[in-house]
Amino acid sequence: MDRALAFSEIGEQLHLLLNGLDVVYHAQGEYEYADSIVFAALDKLRRGSRQNLAAPATLTDWRPAVHELRLFKSEEEIAVMRRAGEITALAHTRAMQACRPGMFEYQLEGEIHHEFTRHGARYPSYTTIVGGGENGCILHYTETKVSCAKAIWY
C-alpha cells in the first residue's frame, strides 16, 4: 500500500490515483456509493484530456479472480487454517470445562477469548456466540449479558 486516504477524501482524490492506469478493478453493482465514486472519477478523467488526464481503458470485475484464488490454498495457508481449528477446539473445550450455573454469558465468552489469546490468536475469526437458557436458542446471539443460572445443562 502506497497511500491511505480518509473516506471523505476518496471522492476528491480517486481520479488522480486512477490517472494513467490501464485497468481498474472494481466490483460494479456491489455498493451503489462505491459505484458513484468510481464512475465520477472515470468521467472526470475522460473529460480531462486537455489537462493530461487519461482514463483507464478497461474496467474489470475483480471478483472472479479473487474467488478463483479462494479455491486453492498453499501449504502455509492450510497449516494456518489447521492451527486455527486446533485453537478453536481448545477454546470450546475450555468453555465447556469452565461453564457453571450462575455464570454470566460474557464470563464464558471471556474464557473463550482468553484461550485464543493464550495460543497466539489475537481474536477468533468469527463472532463468539454464547447463550444460556432461552438465549441458547437464538441464532447468532451476541448480547452475552445474562446469567446462565437458568440454563438447561445436558
TrEMBL record:
Q: Where is the Peptidase M24 domain?
A: 80-145
What keywords sit in the KW lines? Aminopeptidase, Hydrolase, Manganese, Metal-binding, Metalloprotease, Protease
Record has Methyltransferase as a keyword:
no
Which cofactors does the annotated protein need, by name?
Answer: Mn(2+)
Give Gene Ontology CC terms: cytosol
Does the UniProt entry include the keyword Transferase? Answer: no
Kindly state which reaction or reactions the protein catalyses.
Answer: Release of any N-terminal amino acid, including proline, that is linked to proline, even from a dipeptide or tripeptide
What the entry lists under Gene3D superfamilies is as follows: Creatinase/methionine aminopeptidase superfamily, Creatinase/prolidase N-terminal domain
Q: Which Enzyme Commission number(s) are listed?
A: 3.4.11.9
Q: Name one GO biological process term.
A: proteolysis
GO MF terms here are: aminopeptidase activity; metal ion binding; metallopeptidase activity
The enzyme's first-digit EC class, named in words, is hydrolase
The entry's family comment says: Belongs to the peptidase M24B family.
Q: Which PANTHER family match?
A: XAA-PRO AMINOPEPTIDASE 3
List the protein's name: Xaa-Pro aminopeptidase
Question: Species name for this entry?
Answer: Cedecea neteri
Q: Which gene encodes it?
A: pepP_2
